[in-house]
């Protein structure tokens, strides 16, 4: 039994709770448990947003020529797969990220699924989907080891590109833009929806904020009804559906087939879709933590494992692939609720909805401008979150190019798609994806620019007057390493304070050498010098009133010395002082 | 360091850092303007990033002189780091700190 547990631990490492600090404006973060009414209310909204995106499954089903009853089964099974995967994803287990990540029909997988089904049959497509799911699960195991190639700035590039890639689809839906130009009713519906969502999430707290998206969508629906964009025609589609139906009825799950030519395009697309899931995981992790410093690779590994499970499940159920929903991130941000319990609730609600075709069909009939407004809101959030991540680290010319070129390459695919249109068909999924091309560019440049960068350094200090030189040295090292500016500042202050304290009492011989070493989790500074070890202990308490009355400055000097020791202790996360044979060492460690 | 006289009030504005290297100059300018410590003085930290314990020593000396002379001293525009240094020393409890120069001056009236 223990042997199997060990094997399981290697294949699927157990869940570890992330340390986080709740951001202002968030009501419930991942590990907090909102009450049942809140979980139901917000989980229900996530299910509604997802069902709006089920339209993609309807389109795929229609394109592959399913009959009306087959289509109902195909769509219902997709909802079941999305619900189960969302539930697993939200669980704090070795198979889930423990975050509120909702799985939706994957838009980037649509063209591949339709093309393969048309050429080789639906069974060949679902066979390829099953194999892709297993492959993604296997690949996810390597993600935790890729920490050094996926630093915060690369995660930022990924989020910026994710935000940018949402813009076109979101704005098209928002404006109803087509060959005929802009569609004013669409703009009115979407603007109302967006205004209500923003107003509720910015200017309210508590219940109205919780319901921001659903109230926004309802407002858009009212405007759509007034403008004649939602009414009898849509309701007729709804009433054609039975009230209750088993998801399996009407659709014979095709027998999966493995055909090499069918596997390749779908496999490639699924790997790219997994990158999309990495972006979603980073974004939700950041929503949950005001002290977000770096990508939590084990969590991302679990999120991608679950992505693979979702794809595998979809294939086994004979339906269309799943990805992760960016629009639901917007809902988590707008409602201020990102508790995993809500994700589990959303998953459960989705499974129930799969048995109620009238309800799910009603939601798929919601006008596209409403969806557009939610996507535009999410795109805005993603862009800012990505920029925050990029700017959270110190930048030098190497890192500036890495970020700038990553975003530029990704943007080229979005702004000038004709450039990649001539690429061989097999490469199209890669070169045609802004997210993949831009992120891979940033990752490769990050690895190239790391060549020749030492993870440690030293500087001789000739006296207290070398403080300016020390500041410049730490700044340069911080930029090389892409360290957090705040941590490097704290390190500089603590060393300055230590040198002030030591220059009077401890160091007997200058110059001394300061050694600095860096890894993603900590920065260590060692001062090795000839003299007495630093005394950080607070001497007797000083009365400020007495100090102000004293004629000499002895009490004042004592107080300043006390404060100096306290400051060093407060600035550094760990302080160690030792001495041996007239030499002393002061070690300052800063969590990074 | 910028020095401004507004009526009978001296406003001093050090810049960047007040540490071992810069505090002698800051101390010199303060004590050139403090007289017998019976006037009114505002120290504006809006352009200061960092105050070390050496900087704190200058502030304490200034406060001591002003207290003895019966003058009034106010600090303003302190960032979080400077507030922390003052809090650690207990200095925040005995000296007036304000959001702006004007708010500081108002309390002298």
Describe the protein's architecture and organization.
The complex is a heterodimer of chains A (592) and B (109). Chain A is an alpha+beta fold. Chain A has helices spanning 2-11, 36-53, 55-63, 68-90, 110-120, 122-140, 152-175, 184-203, 207-210, 212-226, 232-239, 260-287, 297-316, 327-335, 340-353, 357-364, 368-391, 397-415, 418-421, 428-431, 434-450, 467-481, 485-505, 544-549, 554-571; strands at 103-105, 322-324, 456-461, 512-519, 522-530, 574-580, 583-591. In chain A, α11 packs antiparallel against α16 (357-364) and α14 (327-335) packs across α17. The mean pLDDT of chain A is 90. Chain B has 109 residues and is of the alpha/beta class. Chain B has one domain: STAS domain (Transcription Regulator spoIIAA, 2-Layer Sandwich). In chain B, 46% of the residues are buried. The mean pLDDT of chain B is 90. The chains are: A alpha+beta (592), B alpha/beta (109). The A-B interface holds A 464-465, 467-468, 493, 496-497, 499-501, 503, 544-545, 547-548, 550, 553, 556-557, 559-564, 566-567, 570 and B 19-21, 50, 52-54, 56-57, 60-61, 63-64, 67-68, 81, 84-85, 88-91, 93-94.
Give a short synopsis of this structure.
The complex is a heterodimer of chains A (592) and B (109). Chain A is of the alpha+beta class and 592 residues long.
């Amino acid at each position: 039994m223990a042997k199997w547990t060990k094997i399981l631990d290697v294949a699927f490492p157990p869940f570890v709770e992330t340390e986080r600090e709740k951001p202002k404006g968030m009501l419930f973060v991942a590990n907090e448990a909102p009450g049942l009414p809140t979980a139901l209310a917000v989980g229900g909204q996530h299910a509604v947003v997802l069902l709006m995106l089920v339209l993609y499954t309807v389109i795929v089903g229609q394109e592959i020529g399913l009959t009306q009853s087959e289509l109902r089964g195909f769509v219902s099974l997709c909802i079941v797969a999305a619900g189960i995967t969302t539930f697993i994803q939200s669980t704090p287990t070795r198979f889930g990220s423990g975050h509120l990540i909702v799985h939706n029909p994957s838009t980037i997988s649509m063209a591949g699924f339709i093309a393969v089904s048309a050429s080789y049959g639906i069974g060949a497509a679902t066979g390829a989907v099953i194999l892709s799911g297993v492959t993604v699960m296997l690949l996810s195991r390597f993600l935790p080891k890729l920490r050094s190639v996926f630093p915060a700035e690369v995660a930022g590039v990924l989020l910026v590109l994710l935000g940018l890639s949402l813009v076109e689809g979101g704005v098209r839906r928002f404006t109803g833009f087509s060959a005929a130009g802009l569609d004013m009713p669409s703009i009115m519906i979407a603007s109302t929806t967006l205004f209500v969502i923003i107003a509720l999430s910015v200017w309210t707290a508590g219940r109205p904020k919780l319901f921001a998206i659903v109230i926004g969508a309802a407002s858009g629906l009212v405007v759509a009804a007034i403008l004649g964009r939602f009414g009898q025609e849509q309701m007729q589609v709804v009433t054609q559906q039975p009230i209750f139906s088993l998801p399996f009825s009407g659709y014979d799950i095709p027998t999966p087939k493995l055909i090499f030519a069918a596997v390749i395009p779908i496999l490639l697309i699924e790997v790219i879709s997994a990158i999309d899931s990495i972006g979603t995981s980073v974004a939700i992790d950041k929503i949950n933590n005001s002290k977000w410093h770096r990508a939590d690779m084990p969590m991302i590994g679990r999120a991608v494992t679950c992505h693979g499970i979702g794809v595998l499940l979809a294939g086994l159920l004979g339906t269309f692939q799943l990805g992760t929903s960016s629009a639901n991130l917007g809902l988590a941000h707008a409602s201020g609720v990102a508790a995993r319990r809500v994700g589990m609730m959303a998953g459960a609600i989705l499974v129930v909805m799969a048995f109620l075709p009238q309800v799910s069909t009603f939601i798929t009939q919601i006008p596209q401008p409403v969806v557009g407004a939610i996507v535009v809101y999410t795109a805005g959030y993603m862009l800012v979150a990505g920029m925050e991540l990029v700017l959270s680290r110190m930048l030098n010319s190497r890192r500036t190019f890495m970020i700038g070129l990553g975003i530029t390459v990704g943007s080229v695919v979005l702004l000038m798609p004709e450039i990649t249109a001539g690429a061989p068909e097999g490469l199209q999924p890669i070169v045609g994806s802004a997210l993949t091309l831009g992120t891979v560019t940033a990752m490769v440049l990050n690895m190239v620019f790391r060549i020749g960068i030492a993870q440690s350094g030293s500087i001789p200090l000739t006296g207290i007057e070398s403080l300016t030189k020390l500041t410049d040295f730490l700044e340069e090292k911080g930029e090389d390493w892409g360290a957090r500016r705040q941590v490097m500042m704290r390190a500089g202050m603590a060393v300055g304070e230590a040198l002030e304290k030591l220059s009077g009492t401890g160091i007997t011989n200058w110059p001394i050498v300061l050694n600095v070493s860096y890894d993603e989790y900590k920065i260590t500074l060692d001062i090795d010098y000839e003299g007495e070890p630093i005394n950080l202990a607070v001497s007797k308490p000083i009365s400020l009133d007495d100090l102000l009355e004293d004629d000499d400055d002895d009490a004042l000097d004592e107080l300043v010395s006390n404060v100096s020791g306290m400051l060093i202790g407060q600035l550094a996360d760990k302080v160690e002082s030792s001495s041996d044979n007239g030499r002393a060492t002061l070690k300052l460690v800063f969590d990074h | 360091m910028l020095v401004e006289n507004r009526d009978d009030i001296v406003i001093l504005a050090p810049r960047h850092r007040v540490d071992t290297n810069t505090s002698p100059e800051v101390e010199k300018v303060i004590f050139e303007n403090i007289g017998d410590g019976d006037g009114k003085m505002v120290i504006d930290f809006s352009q200061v990033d960092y105050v070390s314990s050496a900087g704190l020593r200058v502030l304490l000396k200034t406060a001591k002189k002003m207290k003895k002379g019966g003058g009034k001293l106010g600090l303003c525009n302190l960032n979080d780091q400077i507030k922390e240094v003052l809090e650690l020393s207990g200095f925040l409890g005995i000296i007036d700190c304000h959001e702006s120069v004007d708010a500081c001056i108002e309390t002298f009236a």
